[in-house]
Specification:
heterodimer, A: 261 residues, alpha/beta, Rossmann fold, six-stranded mixed sheet, four-stranded antiparallel sheet, 10 helices, globular, B: 233 residues, mainly alpha, 9 helices
Chain lengths: 261, 233
Amino acid sequence: MPLVEIRNLSYRYPDGVLALSDVSFAVDEGECVGLVGPNGAGKSTLLWHLNGLLPERLREGPRWSSEGNHQANSHAGVLRVADMELSADNLPAVRRAVGLVFQDPDDQLFGTTVREDVAFGPLNLGLSADEVRLRVDAALAVVGLSNVAERLPHHLSVGERKRACLAGVLACRPRLLALDEPTANLDPRARRQLIRMLTQLDCAKLIASHDLEMILEICPRVILLDEGRVRADDPTESILRDEPLLLAHGLELPASLWHGR
Amino acid sequence: MQPDQLERQSLERHGAAAASPLARIDPRVKLAVAVALLIATSVTQPWWFPVALGVPLSLVHVAVAAAVVAAAWSARLAWNDLARRLALFAIPLAIIGLSIPLSSGRAGWPIMAGVLAKGLLSFAIVIVLVHSTGFDRLLVAFRQLGAPKLLVAMLASMYRYLFVLLEELERMRRARRARTFTRDAVLSPTALKSGAGLIGMLLVRASDRAERVHAAMLARGFDGEVRTLDEAP
């Protein structure tokens, strides 16, 4: 049984834009999968679905439709996480299983201090204060931010903010880490630190990124998304070496693969 | 605006104040005293004594002002910094206060002066309090003194995103300046129109940001209940 299973997922935004169309794939426990595609391909929309933030954050009860039963023509398909079909009823359990790291760290770091922010998720899990402290300290140690735990988030560099976001999600101990453009706006050193961290994490990872070099380095498998559709789902090298395929979908060959052209 | 500039301007960056005598006092004590001074300032009716000086304040106000001056000195707050912040606050306060003499004639001027003086005094109390304590420690003190959790959470979010929005505003201003090739007067129709557009765009971006922050909170299990580390079971 895969950790995440998506079958025939379609989603249309309220303004009528079709963001996802008949998307199907699965992610196994511990697997690391890259999600690539041009701007507007639907990568972020897909990640938001995994965490139950879409459709419309499931705010108004179980509006999610299964087995292709279209409701209001806006969303359809099956999304299963950790053997649970996404619905308003099991939303908390799904969010425990999937940790979502947003693209802009300022969206995610809303705590007064770094420690308070990292503790936000574990506190919402209903853990004891001692357990929360243990998890916060462990997560901060993993991302190398133990020394800035008491600082205010807006005093951190972009790289530190990204790592603090990652700590906030890791403290919830998710089974799948969904990362939206984790290396965007990072300098080479911060990028390298983040890549090293990601390779050391045991949980499954789904990484949406334009950083094809990073995808090549850490993801054995890649899903290419364009105009809301899965255009390819294969081993990373076979997709990232396929220049015509990449060019057709707004991407280009990673520089490290130029020699093989 | 660069982050280091923002840092210099942020309310809780109190530099030398962190080691000042006032900074060493328990934030809860400072908060309680500040609230008492604010209440005294706002509820005390103007009295005859300083009318001779043109400002209708009572002896209580004079005493509060003296306490603020002493606290500012103890907190090592730079006088020009205090004056600059008070001047910035005085402008909108004076504009609002002008409605009093405009509606009630000559008798309204002393009332307006009283409102202005009370407002500035209250703002000075807040400046000294924040300068000598730091906003984050003040929030903790709020909680410890029994302020509602939701109120404190809202204040914390407001404070956190104030800097994000300031950065956003500065980026937009810089982009506008980069594409402005004429030098219009500050109050010219073009400048006013452009400024209004900037504020409108900031509101739109703030609204978008709020949506994304809410999504990020939901993603980490937020269910409407604000929980903090010091209150966990």
